[in-house]
Write a structure and sequence with these properties.
Layout lengths: L3 E6 L6 H15 L6 E6 L5 H8 L4 E5 L16 H6 L4 E4 L2 H6 L4 H13 L3 E6 L3 H5 L3 H13 L10 E5 L13 H19 L1 H6 L2 E3 L5 H8 L6 E4 L6 H8 L3
Parallel strand pairs: 1-2, 1-8, 2-3, 3-4, 4-5, 5-6, 6-7
Bound molecules: 1,3-dihydroxyacetonephosphate.
Amino acid sequence: MRKKIVAGNWKMNTTVQEGVELAKAVAEKAAQTPENVGLIIAPPFTHLCCVAEAVEGSKVQLSAQNCADHTSGAYTGEVSAAMLKSVGCQWTILGHSERRQYYGETDEKLVEKTKLALAQGLGVILCVGENLAQREAGEHFTVCQEQIKNVLYNFTAEQMANIIVAYEPVWAIGTGKTATAEQAEEIHACIRRTLAEKFGEQVAEDTTILYGGSCKPSNAKELFAQKDIDGGLIGGAALKADDFIAIAMSY
Ligand code: 13P
């Protein structure tokens, strides 16, 4: 049985103090959420140490939003997978569309980053998704399939046990425009088929695939009811403990 996960991507929001408050509130309410739903929060790098302490003893796991494509050395401004591991991260998000769009993150770089993260024992939340022009051109299935193939086909079935996929249609991120449950489900099913082609049915069945893009308490239930949607990667609504927890309670 694949795991249900609700993950919060805080992006570049909150000061450390605000972040610790938010993490504490999430950790406190986490006990109310269903046992079979995992919770992950991904604060900015600067917050990780303090937030690790704030969520200790709760079921909330810690993720980074990115990691470096090198092991260590002269890469000013970068943060390595080993550093993330050393502050208590269990996960890192990779390939978020904002990183692809604004920071030139390519699929090739994501292969390197995924290798380094897995080698340090971090789980990877790999984001894929089409932009508006690609959807309007009817390319949404192929764009997502290509992103999956370009990155994940470089890994083994065993490594897939530590990888989560997040489908985030770019046009739905931060816009208030959620994909309909049907639009999301058909891409999730396509992602699962693409995984099955390479890794076999069992691995595809066991892989958690999250939906992200204007997911909130009011629409989470309908999205999460879809067969191939295994939870959410939440942006804006993850900045309010009550909303984040309400989303996790939608199961
Ligand atoms: P919003 O929930 O704010 O649309 O952001 C989604 C997202 O990008 C999560 O990674």
